[in-house]
Design goal:
The chain is α+β, with helices and mostly antiparallel strands. It folds into 2 domains: 3-75 and 137-202, no CATH class; 81-136, no CATH class. It is built from 7 helices and 11 strands. The chain has helices at residues 3-14, 27-41, 54-60, 97-104, 119-124, 160-168, 197-202; strands at residues 19-24, 50-53, 64-70, 81-85, 88-93, 109-112, 115-118, 133-136, 139-140, 150-156, 179-187. Helix 2 (27-41) runs antiparallel to helix 6. The two termini are 16 Å apart. Residues 193-203 have low confidence and may be disordered.
Length: 203
């Protein structure tokens, strides 16, 4: 384990506006999160469909995994969720509050939190046995990729079960903790494999 990289990454997260706490995930944490994410993908929703969290899957096979919790000041990732049915995008996440309000006043769309779905397309789902697919991508963390030995860094949004688990790891019960994310750091190939967290997962 390259502790210097872990320490640098955590310090950078703590210096980011809206992030309250960041910590390294150990082998036990990773195993539990993998199970939570598998269970979550088995749960289908009538309107959101079958979830395919590509972002978390990519993060979980990284060499170093860090979790962090956010407050209301954190700038959430943009455009990382899409709902697709038969090759057509019928819904997506929106971070702009003004744009969300505009959709809330529209008869052509339904708003679920920050997710906007085409109302006509949503009604058509009742008459098909083919559920939509919710695709969730990760966002790159370009600042940390400038550090030596880090080849790729991703920030992913986990399931509600993982969110609850990450929050349970904190001693604080502060209600301001509104979101959780997972950071996956991939190291360049010259780093010995035995030092990688991915090696621990495979065993």
């Amino acid at each position: 384990m390259h502790l210097a990289i872990v320490e640098k990454a955590i310090n950078m997260l703590h210096n980011t506006k809206g992030i309250d706490k960041a910590f390294l995930l150990d082998k036990n944490d990773i195993e539990k999160i993998i199970e939570f994410e598998k269970k979550d993908e088995q749960m289908d929703s009538l309107y959101f469909g079958k979830k395919h969290n590509i972002g978390v899957k990519k993060a979980l096979v990284a060499d170093i995994l860090i979790a962090f919790v956010t407050n209301k000041e954190y700038e959430w990732p943009k455009d990382n969720l899409k709902i697709i049915h038969r090759g057509e995008i019928i819904g997506r996440d929106i971070s702009n509050t003004t744009e969300i309000k505009r959709y809330m006043n529209s008869n052509d769309h339904c708003v679920f939190g920050n997710i906007v779905i085409n109302f006509r397309k949503m009604k058509e789902l009742k008459h098909t046995n083919e559920p939509p697919l919710m695709i969730i991508n990760a966002n790159p963390w370009t600042e940390i990729e400038k550090i030596d030995l880090v080849s790729e860094a991703l920030i992913a949004s986990p399931s509600r079960m993982t969110d609850k688990y990450i929050k349970s790891k904190l001693s604080s019960t502060d209600d301001l903790h509104i979101g959780t994310f997972i950071v996956g750091l991939k190291l360049i190939e010259k780093v010995p494999k035995e030092t990688k967290i991915a090696h621990i997962i495979e065993n």
